[in-house]
Amino acid sequence: MRLHEIGSLPGARKNRKRIGRGVGSGWGKTAGRGTKGQNSRSGGGVRPGYEGGQMPIHRRLPKRGFTNIFAKSYAIINIRDLSRFESGSVVDEAALVRMRLVKGKRDGIKLLGQGEIDYPLTIKVNRISQSAEGKIKAAGGSVEVI
User: Fold this and answer.
1) Is the pTM of this model over 0.85?
2) Cα–Cα distance measured from residue 140 to residue 121, given in angstroms and rounded to the nearest whole number
3) pLDDT tens, position by position, for the chain (146 residues)?
4) Are strands 127-128 and 90-91 parallel, antiparallel or unpaired?
5) How far apart are CA 123 and CA 138, in angstroms?
6) Domains of the chain
7) Are the C-beta atoms of residues 83 and 121 closer than 8 Å to each other?
8) Most exposed among 35, 70, 71, 113, judged by the fewest C-beta atoms under 10 Å?
């Protein structure tokens, strides 16, 4: 069997419905749009969300919440993720991106203390939790907050 010999199964390919092509087609004259009214006209219809003059749902529901435009978004990593690094290596933003632990543009990196580590690493991150700092120092490593 070759690529040019492969055909689609019967019923897999269906012609599109061609409306407005004569009375005999069953979709002629008004072309399934009914008679008169806004929706029968070309370019007719109402905008998305319009409910016929009734107060739309997006205006009936109350506004909720608040978005802090000054909030910082940190990439979160845990101590268990650092098992990819060899003993004594320097873990900074470039190393984390290289190991694909951090993706995309963020305001910084925060290290959290979930997991265990038993060999020393030099950590350079923007933020670190107390438990993570304790575990790194207990393993003989060092922490630098940049």
Assistant:
1) no
2) 8
3) 899 999 999 999 999 999 999 999 999 999 999 999 999 999 999 999 999 999 999 999 999 999 999 999 999 999 999 888 888 889 999 899 988 998 877 899 999 999 999 899 999 999 999 999 999 999 998 899 98
4) unpaired
5) 13
6) 74-145 (3.100.10.10)
7) no
8) 70
